[in-house]
Every structure is written in C-alpha cells, then in structure tokens.
Amino acid sequence: MRKDEVRDLMAVLPLKTSHSKVVEQLGLAIVAGKLAVGETLPGDIELEKQFDVSRSVLREAMKTLAAKGLVVAKSRVGTRVTDKCNWNLLDECVLRWHFRAGVTAEFLNHLYDLRLVLEPAAAAFAADRASPDDCEQLRGYAMALGAPDLTFREQVEADLKFHVLLSLVGANPFMESMVGFIKTSLDGAFTLAHSQYVRQSGNGITQSHLAVVEAIERQDGKAARDAMRHLIQLGRRSAIAALEPPPSRG
C-alpha cells in the first residue's frame, strides 16, 4: 500500500468472487471450531453442492486454505483440518476469522504484545522521516476520533488510517509488508475498543493520538515511541474491557 491510498482505506471489503466466498465460509467454520482440528472435510461433490461452485473453484479454494495453514490434503484420506499451531496468524483472513468467531482476553493480550513490538518502532521511524503533509494527515485522523458528527464505523476507519499511515511514513519496507496484518488486527481490536472509547471523553482519545503526532513533528523519536506505547496500552485495556459483560441493572 502507498501513502496516497490510505485516504480511501476501508475497514472490510465485500467478498466478490465465488472463490473468496468459499474460502471465507470454510475458513471461518474452521477457526470457529465448527470444523474441528483433525476433522476431515466433506468430499468434493458434497462441497460443490453446498456452495454451488464448480470443481475448479473448490480446488482453488482448498489450495488457498492450505496456503494459510488451515488444511492439508492427503491421498486416500481427504482434506483435514490441521493443528492450530500451523495456522498463519499473520494472514489477514485468518486473523479476521478469529475476531468474527470471537476472541479471548488471552488472544488480545498476545495481539497487543505484538503491537507493542511493531508500532512504537514505527512511530520512532516516522519521527525521523515524516513530512509536514504526513503530520497534517495524521493530525486530521486524530481529530476525527471521538467526533460527535462521525459514525462508529467512521471513527474506526479514522483510527485505522492513523495507524496504517504511521506504519508507512517510516518508509521501512519490512514494516510496509506487514500493513495488511496491521490493518486487520487493528480493525478487529478497534471495533472492540471503540465501544469503550465512545464511553470516554472524545477529547481523551484524541489527545492520546495527538501526543504521538506532536512527538513526530518535534522529530523526537523517544517521545513518539513512548506516546505510541501508551496509546497501545490504552487500546489493550479498552478492547479487553469490551469482552466483559455489561453490568446488570438492578
């Protein structure tokens, strides 16, 4: 993804092809446990009928799921679901299916631990390399958070754009190659966290993002790293709190 594509970024794109729909439904069923680890998938004829697709579409879908580590095909045995340790959690689809199936606090903590590795470093890179236009765009996304005239989804997408742009501004090619993973992980986490954010003052979430922008504008890498670390920890608490049942009204 290029920086000039971030403005048009959407949280989740609709599925368009028969192939993508088969992959989505089978992948989600596997991650959700409806097709258990070690279970053999139904045969081709049954799946073709179930999804109303051709043999070639079904086989391509199976190849896609195998590339993501979810299934393995064996002659005279069939295609079975692999152990979870083989699933590629860095894959955008696999990660999205986890959020759709329902995540645990343990899963979120692992995810936020990884964010603490990646994003503070991205903020420090940005402090060295961001242009005035980059900073202005980051500031605009920060100001959109908590805005009363924006919908819930618009605020989630503003947050996504902030973090994705920040990852690109540092111009580190390895970080850029992980933008898809970052986008998907943030989409799922922010959708949870924003239900908590909106109960807080909009100014609070805006200020925590602006602190990152201001450090980048000062070209203060350490301050940018620290501000991003603080922001991620706020997000962790909000996302985990969103998993808790609402207090009963007595």
Automatic annotation (TrEMBL):
Xref: InterPro entries: GntR_C, TF_FadR/GntR_C, Tscrpt_reg_HTH_GntR, WH-like_DNA-bd_sf, WH_DNA-bd_sf
Keyword Membrane: no
Coiled coil (residue ranges): none
GO molecular function: DNA binding; DNA-binding transcription factor activity
Record-annotated HTH gntR-type domain positions: 16-84
Keywords: DNA-binding, Transcription, Transcription regulation
Protein name, UniProt field: FadR family transcriptional regulator
Taxonomic lineage: Bacteria, Pseudomonadati, Pseudomonadota, Alphaproteobacteria, Hyphomicrobiales
